[in-house]
Structure formats: structure tokens, C-alpha cells
Amino acid sequence: MAFNFSKLAMQDIMRFSPDGYVIFDTQNIIHYFNKGAEEIFGYKAEEVAGKPIYILIPEDLLRAGELERLQFMTDKYGRLERCCVTRLHKNGARLKLELTRSPIMDEKGYIVGYEAIFRDITKNIEFEKELRLTEKIGAVNKLVNGLAHELGTPLNIIHGHAELVLGDINKEHPHHESIQTILSACQRMTALIKSLRQFASQKTSEQKPVFINKVIEELLNFLRIQLRKQKIEVQTELSKDISPISGDKTQIEEIFLNVLMNSIQAMENGGMISIKTLPFKEEGMEYVATEIADNGPGISPDTLPRIFEPFFTTKEVGKGSGLGLYITHNLVQRHRGRISIEDNAGSGTVVRIHLLCSHSKTLPQERAFGISEERR
Amino acid sequence: MNKDAKATILVVEDDPHMRHLLKIILEKNLYKVIEANDGDEALACLKKSSDIALIVTDIKMPQRDGMELLKTTVEKYPDVKVILITAFGEMEQYLDAMNMGAFEYLNKPFKNQQLLDMVKLALKS
């Protein structure tokens, strides 16, 4: 008798298919569990053989009649094709499967059991969700930016005119207080819009090589007028031996800008900021270490532990949103780095930021310097 | 009031209230102000009066925008300084503007004094 190649081929397809293949009888006892099913569910075939298929179904769904529902549908339509179901991995995780279920009949046409072929689509669904979320974030971002842009001009008109009026009247004038209230309301609105924009700009972003020294030089150029005006001297010691880091340039700028703005705001009567960059190696990973120190009033020891908390601020009401350092901290973490803030031996503050260099890497916002600054 | 005063400044802004504010702030500090509604009008003003020392311009405008005006000014009137104004601008746009030769870039909303400080610096340099 000729060898039955086609039967062997069928067996091998079932055994080695990356798709899961399970056979169970009318009592729901598992009789066959292929390699694909092992990989999807995390069980070995011998672990589940002879056990009921309940072990593969989340309890809440079982109680809700999931199995009866599928049974009913299969019997009614003869076959259930590519429906999406939730199942349980050995480790307790919920899986999304695309499942086809058909009855197995004996020679007389009686149903003796069922076969189910399925594939794991959990990742596809998560990917889709992520994609949808990214789109949503993009839309919110667009809306907030548009809004901020449209509000900027009228806000400026109100503030500017209020300032002009205030300049022409003395403190005894009956409207002096009203004008000041208008000004402080404008400042609160400005801070609010800025915070909104910072939140909106926290999107997933493109990763490219970023040169920290260049970022710092550009920021100092950007801030030069404010620095000069406040008589703040800046000393830099930027190492030529540091490698680029991998990240989103706008977010990296945001990190350093927030830190620099805090120093600048802390030194209204002049002072000094020193900025150092140097290469730093730890556990085989290469980082760029940046140290930004100022000789401002420093941070009190009871404030220090709360400094990265959202909505924590030591600024006057309406002047700070308390989000500056919180956002900075998040951005640093997103770039698999770390940030620490210390009191500079009683004479100012030192901020240390470590960011991972691009060749050590595996992983994958807003500037407005208007009326008031919301950063701490 | 202001010893640098009397310099002529071209204010380019399509929002009439904002343009008016800029005019008052500058005139109060004894600068001479010429107004333009957009980039095209601004170029016509530059052609007409040779005493314009500084342009204070919005970026987003119909017709020719602030960035285009900056480009043309740098090419044709290299002695005229340009301060760009924008509402909640982006770092990238700031860097583009600075690389194209802008003197400074000011974000709305700003304090009147911020504008005056910047104007003073621009005229001094």
C-alpha cells in the first residue's frame, strides 16, 4: 500500500502551525493542543490534555455564558468563522484571539467534539489602540496650539493697554487696583495656556541624534537678552568628548530650558550660572552628564523632596503652574535619563542631568517667554 | 524719556488693535512709527522711506508673512534690523528666524517693557 503522504502533511501542518489548533469533545475536555496553541497560551500539551477548556477562558466570561454562546452559534451556523474572543494565558494575562470553530462529526453525522483554530491578535489590537491614541493626541495638540496662537494676540492687546493705563495713573487713582487686577488675570491666562501647550506637546516623538552642547549653546543665545538684563553671568565648560544622545530635540531643549529658566528666575538681582557637560560611563552604558549650577537663593530642605511633584510651586498664585519641573522630570525619564536637584552647599542650586548616548540606546514642546513664567 | 528715540520703526501687523498697541508703546517712547498691514505693504514702505532703522513684524499674516519679509529685508536692506513677533512660538521657528538673520524673536503676550528693551538693543547694535 502506498505511503499516505497527504495524511502526514496534514498532521505536520497541525502540529507545527504557528496558529493554535485545539480539539475538545462535547464534554469540553481537551484532546489535542498543538505547538502554536502552546506558544499562545503558555501551557504544554501534556499540561492541558484531559483538562476542560475552561482553564483557557477568563472566569468572568465563563460565568457570563461565553462557552454556551459559542456552542449555540457553532451549532446554529455549522461553523463559527474568525470571531474575536478573549482567552486566558497561563500567566493570567488576557489574550485576544481570532478564532474559527467547527464541529467534528462521526461517520453517522453526530457531533463528537469541536476543533478550534486561532491566532493571537492581542498585539495588533494594542498597536491599533496606540495608533488611535497617537492620532487623538495629535488632534488635541493641534487644537491647543491653534487656540494658544489665537489667544496670544488679544491677550497681548489687553495686557499692553492695561500697562499703558497703569503707567499714566498713580496709586491713589480709583482705577489703579482694577487695572492691576486685569494685568494679573492676563498673567494667569498666559501661564495656563503655556501649561496646556506643554501638556499637549507630550506626544511620542521622533528619535534623532541630539548634540547636548549645541542645544545648550542655542538656548544661551536664545536667553541672552534676559541674561544680560538680569546681569547674570554664564560660564560654560562643554566637553568635546561627548557623544550625541538619541531623542527628540524639542523635548531635550525643553528639559534644559526649564532648568535654566528656574535659575534665571531665582536670580532677579544678578548672579552666575555655570554649565558643564562631560561623558559619563556606568554599567557599560555611556551617558552625557550635564551639571547646571547657580548661586541664587537655593532650595529649602523641606521643599526639595516635593520639587518634581505636579502642581507643586513656590511661586505666587497665578505665576507658576507647578508643572515645569514635573514635565522636565517626565521628559528626562522618557529619554531613559535621570535628573537630580541639590542645594549647592548653601549658595544656590545644582541640577544634574544624565542622558543616555545614542549608541547605548534601545528606546525610543513649547517655548513662550511672555508675561509670566510658570516654571519654578 | 528715551535718548535713543526718534529712530523710525516700521510696525507690520495685520491685527489693527495689536498694530495700534505697538504704535502707542513706541510713540510714547518717542520713536517715529510707520504702519503696514502685511509684508507686501511693508516692502512698499521700505522702498519709499530710507530712514527706517528697524522692523517690528508679526509672523503670521496674509499676503507676505513675517518670515518672507525677513528674508527680503536681509537681502535688500541689510542695515535694517528685524524683530519678529509671534504668539506662543516654537523653538524651531525661533532658530530658523535667528539663522535667517533676525535680530530677535518676541513671544506674545509680552510686557511693553520687553518690547522696548529689545528695540533699544536692536537700535544700539
Please describe what this structure looks like:
- The complex is a heterodimer of chains A (376) and B (125).
- Chain A is α+β, with helices and mostly antiparallel strands and 376 residues long.
- Chain A has eleven helices and twelve strands.
- Chain A has helices at 5-16, 35-41, 45-48, 59-63, 66-77, 122-168, 176-200, 212-222, 224-229, 249-266, 324-334, and strands spanning 20-25, 30-33, 80-88, 94-105, 111-120, 208-210, 232-238, 245-247, 271-282, 285-294, 338-343, 349-356.
- In chain A, strands 2-1-5-4-3 form a five-stranded antiparallel β-sheet, sandwiched between helices. A five-stranded mixed β-sheet of chain A has the order 7-9-10-12-11.
- In chain A, helix 6 packs antiparallel against helix 7.
- The longest helix of chain A has 47 residues, at 122-168.
- Chain A is elongated, with a radius of gyration of 32 Å.
- Chain B has one domain (8-124): Rossmann fold (3-Layer(aba) Sandwich), CATH 3.40.50.
- Helices cover 45% and strands 23% of the residues of chain B.
- In chain B, helix 2 packs parallel to helix 3 (66-76).
- The radius of gyration of chain B is 13 Å and the shape is globular.
- Classes of the chains: A alpha+beta (376), B alpha/beta (125).
- At the A-B interface, helix 6, helix 7 and helix 8 of A face helix 1, helix 4, strand 5 and helix 5 of B.
